[in-house]
Structure formats: C-alpha cells, structure tokens
Q: What sequence folds into this?
C-alpha cells in the first residue's frame, strides 16, 4: 500500500507544549515540543485488515481512544518538531504494514558441516596441547 505524508494530514492533530533540554531561556518561553495524534479509526486510506495490522504492531503507541501518538522535542523549532513527528508516523506506518517474506527452511551443506567439524577438532587439539603433560598423550 502506497500512501504519502499528505494523505495522512486529514487525520492528524498536533498539540504543543514547553520542552526541556537545550535552548537556554528559550525553553522557558516557547512551546517547541510537538505531540502528534493520528486518528486511525477514522482514516480512509487504510482498509480494515490494514488497520488491524497497524493496531497489532503499534499497540504500545495507541492511546485508550485508539489514536496513534508520536512525540518529538529534539529540535528547538516547533515547526521542525512537527515535521519530525510526521516523518516518524510515516515510517512507523510503513514498517507496520510491511509483510516479511516467509523464511524457507534449509539444511547446511555437507561441505559446511565437514568444515565445522574439522575446525571444532582443531580447537579441541589446541586446547589439549595447552594442558600440562600434554606430551604424555
């Protein structure tokens, strides 16, 4: 499923607050921390199956009301923090919707098994030779 950041905008609401960290006196005056809330239930770009998959994968980011929450306070600028929140949401949704290819079970080749056993025997001999009285063996 391909979607863009612009497709997500109708379901997004932002909340800003004062942020800690770098910024000096600016931290005490400006609300630069951005909190993005995305209403997944009312979104029309995902079908029911995709919504269930997103809920399952992002369960730790869902609020009680079913909103996906992303917070950013890394930048000094409120605008940059909002952009960062949008980027994070976009990547989270892409990652949640990605279906991994099933792994095909394979057996190690005879040559690799033989090589592993040879290396194991060489290590055992090396350790045996470290012992006192190894000349007796």
A:
């Amino acid at each position: 499923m391909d979607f863009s950041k612009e497709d997500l905008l109708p379901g997004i609401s932002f909340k800003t607050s004062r942020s800690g960290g770098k910024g000096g006196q600016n931290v005490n005056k400006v609300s630069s921390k951005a909190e993005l809330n995305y209403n997944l239930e009312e979104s029309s770009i995902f079908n029911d199956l995709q919504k269930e998959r997103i809920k399952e994968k992002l369960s730790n980011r869902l609020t009680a009301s079913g909103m996906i929450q992303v917070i950013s306070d890394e930048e000094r600028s409120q605008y940059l923090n909002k952009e960062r929140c949008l980027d994070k949401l976009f990547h989270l949704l892409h990652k949640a919707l990605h279906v991994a290819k099933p792994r095909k079970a394979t057996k190690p080749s005879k040559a690799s098994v033989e090589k592993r056993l040879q290396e194991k025997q060489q290590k055992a001999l090396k350790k045996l030779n470290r012992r006192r009285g190894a000349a007796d063996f």
